[in-house]
Amino acid sequence: LVCFSVSGAESLQNKYNICLFVNIAFFSPQDNAQVCITGNGFFKLFKYSEGTLKQMNLQKGEPQNYLCHAWLSEEEVICGTDTGKLMLFETGELHWETSVDITNSFMLVSSDVPCGLASEDNGSQQDSMPQISAVVAYSKGFACSSSPGVVLLFEKTKEKEVYKESQEIWLPQDLFRSEPKTSGRQDIICICFSPSEETMVVNTNKNQLYMFTMLSTSLMKEKAAYFSYLNFPLHSASITGLDICMWKPILATCSLDRSVRIWSYETNTLELYKEYREEAYTVSLHPTGLFCLVGFSDKLRFISLLYEDMHVFKEFAVRNCRECSFSNGGHLFAAVNGNVIQIYSSITFENINNLKGHSGKIHAVKWSADDAKFVSCDTHGAVYEWNLLTGKRESECVLKSCIYSSIALSSDAKIIFAVGSDQTLKEISESSVQHEVPAFDVVYTAVAVSYSGHMVFVGTSLGTIRAMKYPLPLTRDFNEYRAHAGAVTKMSITNNDLFLLTASEDGSIFIWKVYDKGGGILKWVKEVEYAEEVLIMRSDIEEKSQAMLDLQIRVKELQTENAYQLRLKDMYCNEKIKELEENFTQEISSLKTKHQILQAEKEKQELQHQFQLSELMNKQAREVQQLESDSNQKLLMENEKYQELQVKSQRMQEEYEKQLHNLEESKNKAVKELTEYYEEKLNEKSVLLEEAEEDMKQQLQAHEEIKKQIEEDEDQEILEIKIKYERQLLEERESNLQLKGEIGVMNKRLNSLQKELKERNRDTEEMRLEQQKLQGIIRSLEKDILALKTEVQERADTIQDKEKHIYDLKKKNQELEKFKFVLDYRIEEFKKQIESRENDIKTMKEQIHEVSRTLIWPLLLNPLNTKMTCTQLKLNIIQLQQKLKATDREMHRERQKKQNMETLIKRFKTDLHNCVGFIQDSRKMKDGIRELYTKYVQRSDSVSQGLSETDLQQEYMRQREYLERNLAAFKKKVVKDQEMHQAAYMRIVQENVSLIKEINDLRQELTVARTQVHDLQSTLRLTKKNQAIQDTASSTELLSSPAVLRLNAEKENEKIIEMQQLEIQYLRDQIQEKGQVLAVQPLLVGNLPKLNLERSHKTH
């Protein structure tokens, strides 16, 4: 971990080695010296002070894989893990923890949410483990993404939970996609809020941007809400095709995300968008802007661009078409089929011509302005120019060392610009390369030429755009603009040279405005007028016209119904107005009486208040008099103090004057004494001078000098004493004056001091409370310090114990190595003995053969002595066989001993290696050494003896029989469980079948009920119309009794309708219950009876 300064691009000489995988590091927004670092298995807080990074926390608890974190305050950090946990750390310690569990209750699609999430996605949502992929803080709390397609908002509370979930926000479905539910399953990578926190924007792993207005959270009552696109859906994969239209300001793009999109480069909006099931490799727009060609992995499709849709008009059997292009006139189009370029008529759709000659894959094709010439390039370095009238090549330029990726034609079709893998831009004319411009260590991937012929634009593999003038410069004379994050795949310029369009592998499209050097937009000679025609299907127009007719009929019916209802409401309202007038007149009379009562009460209260005011005024006058008397007493006291201070100052002045007078008298006495003393000395020295004149002269000179110095010193001391006492007098006078001023100030300060005393008493109480809190914190910290000290001591003791145990183990290891050396030596001796015995056995066998030969012949010669000789021979053979068995047993025992010792040494080594692995854990180290001691030291005798072969075999056979028995029992259990599961499986299938049948029956009943309701409503309308006609005809001769009868008939009809509606609601509730049962018990068989969804949709 290295910390850098912002001002200089050098590190701050502070590095902290972390031997772990760091996921994210953030500085605290409140304190820029604090850093939080999280990763797989660690959470650390650092503080930058005195030029170094110091760790502030000790990690406790189980380590987690922290994927993200955010600072909530100066001390609080919220972290998200890969197991769906949110952890709140306060000053490095875990303060609060919760696990996020998303319930899919809000995933059902309703009629009022057009872009909701489908309930079919619930299973996949539940199967995926939740993990916190992003978290960000805002003023009310924080927001986090816990699973694909959802953001949770948490707000701070005063309860134990600290933070509580307030809302779930889901990504919407994209209805234009072939699989709409996948759009709501995107992983949210980043979340951010605007500075005013009015909007929230999220970024997904499929390069999509969504927004949500935070103001709606306070207004919405539902817990679930949905994002909306920030502008429009973008490409999520590499863009493979781009083309512009001549008659309209639109461009078409296709991508590996299986979508085709039509954009407007003037308004910067998405006009049309559709996603298909196959990947799209190339796209070309017809000059009219009403059709387009799209090359898919299976076919080439001719698509009509309708007002709100894309309709496939014709399909061509061209697989993996990587390049296609309409001619400038629109009557022809070219499609690349392998190494062949096929020319089709866009009117008859016939294959007019096939251009053969390329040996590599064709990467780009271009038409000339008059559609007479056609240019193509391939991966084998060939650039061919074709004549479409003859179908033959007119010119060619082949460079096998270059793989061409893009070409461009000048407006007169005389010059070809080509770019490829050799890092140059080539200018080709007359079948040869006329000019080459180096790319300066960058690969050019796309090229475009302005229609004026003055500018050439090149796209690079780094995503930059270079603009250079024509003729091409040899030096680095071009302007470079950074734009894309991937290589530029396609590039095109509009017919008026005002816009440059670029597409890239990162899925982004850039629209550039072309300016001249002066900063103004290039002016086109003729103003372009774009076409505004749009294609619409006849069926769509018929449907819309039919819908308009239905709506008009409906509007007329509603107008008649509304007029009738308004009449009824007027009658009802008039009756209500009369009732309300009567009620209000009664209330007004009651309020008048209340008003009179309240006025009387008011007069009484005014008298009471006047009496109370007079009493309060008297009290106030008394208090003022008391305060004046108190203040007068205080002033008298202060005057007395002032007079006492004046008396003290006079006494001080008198004392100082006396001291000065005494000092002057003492000075005069000292001067007189000195003069007398020196005169006596002078007399004595005059006598001596007579005896020695020369000596006395010198002494007199020295004496005079000393005298002068002494007098000067005394004068200086007297002056200093005078100045000192004068200064003291001045200071005392000034202090007296200050005291006089302070006496006046003290009166004012007394009141302020009393107030300050009260405030300080409050402060002292608050400080005492704070002191108690701090003392509690200090005690807890002291306890922690003591615990840490004890831990340090324990660890030091354990380290000493470990070092002792390691030393003992090393000694034991040395002893075992010595023992091993001895055993190896003995094994070698035994091997030598075995070899000698084998040699003896061979010699004995040879002797037996010789003896047999020698004995057979005499037996044949002397048959009488055969019985005696046979018995002797048998005895000899038995003795020899016994000796052989004894030697074999000894050899087997020695080998067994050797094997036992080797296994014992291996076991000891492995146990010792495992014990050394616990060198950081003292307890495990102790337990391991004790086990080694009990295994190899205390029970050495028992280990040396070991188990015999027979015991081992018996134990092995016993364990084998036990395991075989267990295996047979488990097999029986598995068979029984399979039978039970099959029975339950069949039972659930039968229940599901019956439930589906019931649902279908209920839906049929519902349709019948709805038809009945519709019939009843139509009859009711007819009756209403008839009654309305009768009312209008006999409006002059209306009486009260027939109106009452008509109202009763209407009420009966309304009751009938309400009964029918209740029955319909009951049937809907039953259907919902059955649907919930089906959701709880999912279908397990694929060939079950299908639901009548079409009927249900029609009824809805």
Summarize the structure.
By secondary structure, the protein is an alpha+beta fold. Helix 4 runs antiparallel to helix 5, helix 5 (about 865-915) packs antiparallel against helix 6 (about 920-940) and helix 8 (about 950-1035) packs antiparallel against helix 9 (about 1040-1080). It is extended and about 155 Å long.
Fold and architecture overview:
- The chain is of the alpha+beta class.
- It contains 10 helices and 46 strands.
- Strands 11-12-13-14-18 form a 5-stranded mixed β-sheet, with no helix packed on it.
- Residues 8-14, 104-127, 1036-1047 and 1081-1100 have low confidence and may be disordered.
Compute the number of strand runs: 46
Task: Count every helix, treating DSSP H or I runs of 4 or more residues as helices.
Answer: 10
Shape: extended
Distance between the termini: 62 Å
Indicate the proportion of strand residues: 15-25%
Q: Major sheet: order of its strands?
A: 11-12-13-14-18
Q: Give the class from helix and strand content and strand pairing.
A: alpha+beta
Summarize the biggest pleated sheet. 5 strands, mixed
**Global mean pLDDT:** 81
DSSP helix fraction: 40-55%
List the helices and strands and how they pair.
Elements: E1 2-4, E2 11-15, E3 22-27, E4 34-39, E5 42-49, E6 52-55, E7 66-71, E8 76-81, E9 85-90, E10 93-99, H1 122-127, E11 134-138, E12 141-147, E13 150-156, E14 163-170, E15 188-193, E16 199-204, E17 209-213, H2 215-219, E18 224-226, E19 228-229, E20 239-244, E21 250-255, E22 259-264, E23 269-275, E24 280-285, E25 291-296, E26 300-305, E27 310-316, E28 324-326, E29 332-337, E30 340-345, E31 351-355, E32 362-367, E33 373-378, E34 382-387, E35 392-398, E36 404-409, E37 416-420, E38 424-429, E39 432-438, E40 444-449, E41 455-460, E42 464-469, E43 479-482, E44 488-493, E45 499-504, E46 509-513, H3 538-691, H4 693-861, H5 866-917, H6 922-938, H7 940-945, H8 949-1033, H9 1040-1080, H10 1093-1099
Parallel strand pairs: 14-18
Antiparallel strand pairs: 1-2, 3-4, 4-5, 5-6, 7-8, 8-9, 9-10, 11-12, 12-13, 13-14, 15-16, 16-17, 17-19, 20-21, 21-22, 22-23, 24-25, 25-26, 26-27, 28-29, 29-30, 30-31, 32-33, 33-34, 34-35, 36-37, 37-38, 38-39, 40-41, 41-42, 42-43, 44-45, 45-46
Helix pairs in contact: 3-4, 4-5, 4-6, 5-6, 8-9
